[in-house]
Amino acid sequence: MTDIAWTEGTWTTEPAHVDFAEDGMRVTAIEKSDAWRITSYGFIHDTEHALLTSFEQETAVEVSFHLDFSAQFDQAGIFVRVDDATWIKAGIEWSDGVESLGAVVTRGVSDWSLSPVPGWDGRLVTVRASRSGDALTVRARADNQPWRLVRVAPLDPEAVVTAGPFCCAPSRENLTVHFTSWRTSAADASLHPDS
Fold this sequence. Notes:
Blueprint: E1 2-3, E2 10-11, E3 17-21, E4 24-28, E5 35-37, E6 44-46, E7 49-54, E8 59-66, E9 75-83, E10 86-95, E11 98-107, E12 109-110, E13 113-116, E14 124-132, E15 135-142, E16 148-154, E17 162-168, E18 176-186
Antiparallel strand pairs: 1-18, 2-7, 3-4, 4-18, 5-6, 7-17, 8-14, 8-18, 9-10, 9-17, 10-11, 11-12, 11-13, 14-15, 15-16
């Protein structure tokens, strides 16, 4: 794994505040920040705080953060972007009173998958996006537990893609996310660990 410097990325939307320290980066989100396109709700939100840099084919990107959410739709993880209408966000979202692991895959319109992960609150969460061939494979874990497969989504192998940490606070102000690392490595060798 190779660390990516926090200064290497560019924000899609500037957060309310960013603080850099030896133990990582703390990002305070703006109230009503979010990323979504059309499906079910009818609106387009493109105000996520995503710190992005180049994401090359046959590489992976990992983002780690301390999970400390308490308000509806607090969220953080990894954001993978092709353009305004083609992107993927994956990580933890506080939904209906519980921390949940999921992803939003957007290709013109958004979809949303979510699964509760009770017991992850207060722990270090790592989200990994691996780009290989025509797919993006997303995995996540708490602390050093085994990786969980979150999503396999199509991603044009010829696309120019950026990726990095993100957070949003759709329903409140003063959400601060403590990101501890942003790293890159070679893409995962296989979709399944025993292959």
